[in-house]
């Protein structure tokens, strides 16, 4: 459940070089806090501040903190001075600095998921050792169309899993990248009325890593040996060169740099779930760098208010609720459900981790600025 804080006893007015900001402290905060292994910046900020995504602005206003982005286990944070975050006493620097999110929850998505505009042109697995249908660790696979392959070169073996576009949140893809037969109108109820159609990208999931062990001089299939900690590989899976460090490991919570267009960005899928997600679930959203989002951006998730049939109007045989307006229907308020922090951003799609909330979040729910999650009850323009 979303953490409810008591009314703050004091408000700290802190001045930066370019602007002034005021931030309410959470009630009943301690005088000091010792940072522990396993903490996240969000967890610590939520202990002290009613808006944990504003911690960089608040902490940077204190000149005693040399670098508020680098806080380590063992550091002692003092809160006694003027009811505000003040001095950080450094502890031993034997652990990595804190991140904004629990890395154990997002690292599989940092390593194994990516968004691309197309995949048909990528090299692919033509066959498997002993003509198997599936291949696993320490087995050989044979790939075609690698560009100048070299022995020892490593490739990520990936498989298309979803197509993201608007107005439909997503299409599930089969192992060959074709539409999954029979999905029909599975996601129809999550579609939001929208006159614009927009292709957002394909989601590729990493199955395994393969290392080139032999290159055919005549240009035929190259041989790769699979590493032992991957998933099954099939003929038709695609290949992408392994990047040395393809993802960011530090996330600093902050508000969006650009205000979102209300109702435009929404949840398209929930990892390892059909429709709903809760705290520490990963979601894909229909917004990215073109909307001004970046790693660490915090947003609030909202359930669109339905159009409820007026009990004193219309016929009782009609559907009671719908997402479309109509005669005899009343628009109900949108409902806040959770906050989400973005941890991996592409141009049109981002992955985020649900931090905490008051209700489950569903495919089709839309996103707003984080402050809306505490006060706003306005409705979005979804039609």
Number of strands: 24
Describe the biggest sheet? Answer: 8 strands, antiparallel
Unreliable runs, pLDDT <50, ≥5 residues?
A: 1-23, 184-191, 375-383
The secondary-structure element order is EEEHHEEHEEEEEEEEEEEEEEEEEEE
Mean pLDDT: 79
3D architecture notes:
- It is a single chain.
- With 383 residues, the protein is mainly beta.
- It folds into 3 domains: 11-89, Membrane-bound Lytic Murein Transglycosylase D, Chain A (Roll), CATH 3.10.350; 112-241, no CATH class; 267-373, Thrombin, subunit H.
- The protein contains 3 helices and 24 strands.
- The strands form 6 sheets. Strands 6, 7, 8, 9, 10, 11, 12 and 13 form an 8-stranded antiparallel β-sheet that branches. A 6-stranded antiparallel β-sheet has the order 14-16-22-21-17-24, with helices on one face.
- The longest helix is centred in the N-terminal third of the chain and has 10 residues, at 103-112.
- It is flat, with a radius of gyration of 24 Å.
- The two termini are 31 Å apart.
- Residues 1-23, 184-191 and 375-383 have low confidence and may be disordered.
């Amino acid at each position: 459940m979303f953490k409810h804080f008591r009314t703050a006893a004091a408000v700290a007015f802190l001045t930066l070089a370019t602007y002034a900001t005021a931030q309410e402290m959470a009630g009943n905060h301690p005088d000091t806090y010792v940072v522990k292994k396993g903490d996240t910046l969000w967890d610590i900020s939520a202990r002290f501040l009613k808006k944990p995504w504003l911690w960089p602005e608040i902490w940077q206003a204190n000149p005693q903190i040399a670098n508020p982005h680098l806080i380590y286990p063992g550091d002692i944070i003092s809160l006694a001075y003027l009811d505000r975050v003040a001095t950080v006493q450094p502890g031993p620097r034997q652990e990595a600095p804190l991140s904004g999110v629990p890395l154990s929850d997002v690292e599989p998505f940092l390593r194994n998921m990516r968004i691309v505009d197309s995949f048909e042109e990528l090299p692919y697995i033509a066959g498997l050792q002993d003509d198997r249908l599936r291949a696993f660790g320490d087995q050989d696979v044979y790939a075609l169309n690698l560009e100048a392959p070299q022995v020892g070169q490593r490739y990520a073996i990936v498989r298309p899993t979803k197509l993201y576009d608007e107005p439909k949140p997503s299409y599930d893809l089969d192992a060959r990248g074709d539409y999954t037969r029979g999905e029909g109108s599975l996601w129809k109820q999550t579609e939001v009325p929208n006159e614009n159609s927009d292709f957002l990208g394909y989601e590729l999931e990493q199955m395994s890593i393969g290392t080139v062990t032999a290159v055919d001089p005549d240009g035929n299939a190259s041989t790769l040996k699979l590493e032992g900690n991957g998933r099954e590989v099939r003929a038709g899976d695609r290949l992408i060169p392994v990047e040395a460090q393809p993802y960011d490991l530090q996330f600093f919570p902050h508000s969006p740099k650009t205000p979102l267009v209300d109702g435009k960005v929404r949840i398209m899928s929930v990892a390892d779930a059909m429709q709903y997600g809760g705290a520490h679930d990963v979601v894909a959203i229909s917004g990215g760098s073109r909307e001004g989002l970046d790693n660490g951006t915090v947003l609030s998730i909202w359930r669109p208010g339905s159009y409820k049939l007026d009990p004193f109007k219309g016929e009782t045989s009609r559907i009671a609720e719908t997402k479309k307006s109509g005669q005899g229907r009343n628009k109900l308020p949108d409902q806040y459900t959770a906050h989400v922090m973005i941890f991996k951003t592409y141009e049109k799609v981002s992955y985020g981790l649900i931090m905490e909330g008051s209700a489950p979040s569903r495919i089709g729910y839309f996103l707003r600025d984080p402050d809306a999650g505490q006060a706003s009850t306005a409705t979005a323009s979804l039609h």
